[in-house]
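Milestone M4 deliverable, item 7.
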Amino acid sequence: MARGNGFTLIEVLVALVIFAVGVMATLRAMGVVITGSSEQRLRLAAGWVAENRLAEMRATGRFPPLGTNEGEETMAGQHYVWREETKATPNPLFRRVDVSVFLTEGDDHALSRLSGFAVKPLR
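Output delivered:
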């Protein structure tokens, strides 16, 4: 009996299984990259929200009272909730302001945190 130069059915099935596993691994890797990209986009915009809060405080010359201040802002088409915590420093002319930005109100996981200092104007 003469044997042909082709592949057997078993060899073809093994090759297809190896190919399918490779394709699935590639699709999974692409999914991880896409998820990470959208998470990075959220964190970047949340950082801009925090920077805007501190920049607005400096631009207006506002010397914030001690305590917590909360609000909402939309950045890059996404709604964010921010919280400013103003704390005293050893120098009464300075106050530390910690800004945390969250995706939803009541969320414990901050997408961005930024600290800055407010200076009381001398008059």
